[in-house]
Every structure is written in C-alpha cells, then in structure tokens.
Amino acid sequence: MALTPPLNPAAPPFQTRNLRSLCTMDPTNPIRRFAASFTGHAITLFARFITAVRADWRGIEPVRRQRVYFANHTSNGDMPMIWSVLPPALRRETRPVAAADYWLKNPLRAFVGGEVFRAVLIERNPEGRTADPMARIITALNEGASLIIFPEGARNMGTDPLLPFKSGIYNIGRAHPAVDLVPTWVANLNTIMPKGEVIPLPLICTVTFGAPLHVDPDETKDAFLARATAALLALAPQPARAS
Amino acid sequence: MTGTTVDLILLAFGVFGVLIGLTLLGEALRLRIGAHHSNPVIETYMTRIRSWWAMVILLSLALISGRTGVLILFAFVSFAALREFLTLTTKSQADHLALAAGFFVILPAQYILIGMDWPGLFGILIPVYAFLLLPIVSVLRGDANRFLIRVAETQWGLMICVYCASHVPALMTIHIPGYDGRAVLLIAFLVMVVQFADLLEYYFGRRIGGRKIAPGISPKTWAGLACGVTCAALIGGLLHWITPFGLFGAMAMAAVTALTGLFGNIVFAAIRRDKGIKDWSHLIPGQGGIMDQLDSVAFAAPVFYHLTRFFWSA
Hints:
heterodimer; A: alpha/beta; Glycerol-3-phosphate (1)-acyltransferase; 7 strands; globular
C-alpha cells in the first residue's frame, strides 16, 4: 500500500536492512510499526481519559464502507477525536487529510502524522506546490481508504458555527459518487483545547455521525455545498446552532 | 485479616446476594420471552444490573484496600463527575485557566488534604479559597460577559462534585472512641443506605403514586419519599452492627441521610431540566453518567459527616 510522501526527501534511499536501518525513517520496519501502533493506542487512551469521547452514530452504522467523514474544525484535536471514536477495524482504513506544512515541521510530527494517523498530506500553499492536493486525495480514495476531511479548510476561530466550505468535498463526491460523504460534528473541542491554550480541559466531547450524502448527477457545486453545510450544522447541539 | 475486613467482605457478599437475585430475575424474564425475541425493558434492566455489578465490585475493592484506595477511587469519581457537570455550565475562553486549575489543582489538593487528615483546611479549601481565587484567575483575562453566571456555575460544580463528594472518604478521618480503623465501614453504610433508598423510593413511588413533591421537575411523590426513608431507616437498623451509632442511632442517621439524598436527587432533576438534558453522559451503560449516580450521595455525605462528627467523635 502506498504510504505518505517521503518524510525526508533529502535522506538517501533506503537500501539494506541492517541494525542501523531500524532507526531510519523507513515506515515498514517492525520497530517503527510497533511504535506507531503503540502511539495510536496512547492517543486514543488519552482522548478517552480527558474527554470521555463518545461516538453518536445517528445517521450511519459503524461498518466497513468507504466513506469520507467531513467535519467541523475548531481545534487541532478534532481529527484525533474522530480517529479515536472509530472502531479499530474502521480506524485502520481511515486516513485524515492534513496540511503538510504542519505535519512535516519536525520528525516527531512527521512520525505521528505519517505513520500513526497515516495522513494524506497536502500542501495548502499553491506556490511551490509539488503535487495537486486533489490528486493526492483521489489517489488515496482509489486505493480504497476512507478519509477524514475538514471542508472549512482552516480552523474556525469566529463565532459562526461553520466557515464557508471549500469546493474539495464537491469534487470528491463527483469523482467517487459511490463513496458515502458523512457529515461529522465534533462538539465541545473549541472549549477543551482552544487555540493558544496549553492545558486541555477535561470536558466531554461527542462526535456525531449524520446520514451520508452523495452529489446528485445534475447538482451544482453551490447547491451541494449548501446541502452539505446544512447537513453538518443539523448535527450541532442547540446552542451552537443558535449562535 | 482484621475485623473490619471481615465485616466488609460479609457486606460485599450480602450485596452480591441481592445482585445475584436481580440477575437471576432478569435471566428468568429473558427465558420466558424466548431466545428469539428481545424486550427493550429487560435489556435495559440487565444493562443496569451489569453496571451495578461493576460499581459494587469497584467500591468493595477500594474499601478493602483501605484509605488510599478509597481516596483514589473518589478522586476519579469527582473528576468524572466534574467533567460531566462543567461540560454543561456557562463558560468562555477567559475561564480556561480557572477551570483547568479546578480540575488539576483544586481537586487533587482536596483529596490530598483529606489523606493528610487536615479537616481544618479541607473544609474550607473550596468554599473559601477556590471561591475567591478562581474568579480572580478568570477576571484577569478580561471578559465580563455573563461573568457572575460563569463563576457561580463553576463554583457550584466544584462544591457538589469535589467538596461534597469528598466528604465520603473524609469519613475515614473522624476519630470515634472504640471504632478505630473501622471508619471505612461508615462509607459502606452511607453508600448502601442512600442507594437502596433511591431504588426503593423509585419502586414504591411508581407503585403507589400520589401527590408529587415538585410537579414539573421530578416524578417523585410524597408517598414514595416516605416509603424510601422508612425503608432506609430499616436497612440502617439492620446494618447498625457496622456503625458506632447503636440501633436507633443507625436508624435515625439512615433516615436523615436518605431524606437529604432524595431531595438532592430532585435538585439535580431541576438542573438537568434547566440544561435540557436527560442524563449527564453515557459513561455508565444503562444508567447515564457518573453524576446521575453521585447526586444523592454528594448531597447526603456532608450531612452524614457532620452529624457523625458532632454526636460520635471524640
């Protein structure tokens, strides 16, 4: 299975499997795989301890189907929360779509993003881009992965419950009409871990999965994005919707 | 093995007996409707019984392990309850540090002070020092919007989930002549009396009906309350051998404790209604959250603690 782009393009290509190679960046070696799986368990355990995070399968069943979970984005903790509430069998097949500049900043993030979450890393800044983000996403879908995406494109810092969606989700729905587009509302994380705070607050986080959407054959981009926004907003608890 | 441990094991087996009876009842009902059908009422009942088993086993182990075990168990119970409570209270980002201090400084400090047997300080840490300091921490961030509601709801959460709940393990710090080393039994007495009163009040209240105590808030009736408190007094009398209270003392303590707990339950029904929720969380399968279990115990514990100290301590 094709994994993330080379984590350190400057490193020489991996050649022989000797003792030293165990410490290299090769994601297939057993020690790194064990470390990745261990870190993954630690992250889900931490998420459960701090936020008692719980899934509300309101519109779908937790079964193995190819899906794109599209979620609201208020905190860097959003993605790990969704990832944590997925049953292990689903989690193994689900890859978050995340920003390359964030996840390749240092070796630790590269390890967590690339090997624990197996993120599909995309370059946000169009200048100096080496690959088209949509091509990366479509490749991952072609390989059979489910995805977690944040269609707002950036963390929502304002008082509006959602920012306008980017068109990516529409293009995904066009390219893969059979894949379920699942609205996913992460509640409370903006209070648990707001931007600029260091200590996470232990409050209860709920991840609600709504009924899946598909792009209708003759649906325009704007019409679909409006429908997707409404479907996601409908999952928010009352106060968030009112404000 | 000390006499206290033997008594605890006897008590645990007594409760296990009740639970085995309830489990068998559920299984019998399941058999009657046949393997191919499932009745949601019976399934809910069985989920509840399973959760009861887990809670009873956990509490028994903590009590048998002694002081440290009880303190750790209740510290985690407070943590989980406070998490449920503060999830629903009014707050803003300006309160972030104050709330974090509530969870990670005040809560552990309260239990450490109880562990250090320092009643002069654990009795005022939250009602005085947290009460004064946390609003200061909040106000430094400069957000006056709904300030009083924010600090008041936070303080209420700390009082109930930490201060009041911590009076259960604080029972171990009371020195009663001729009762040394047996104070964990008081915890068993308090928890059993309150929980059985809850269950029996529910059962009789639904059976008898009658005038509601707080219409529009809780389905509890005066008749159910009377039955619950009477049953609690009888159970307290049956359990008087584990207490220093004597037969009538144990009955009176049980009645007062149960009464406080049942009214605490109604207060929490009003809070749930105000916040528009049915349960506090989904942490305990079939029973809602930790707070749903803790409300009556948290109300009853300080009253039980102070009555015990006033009438029986040296």
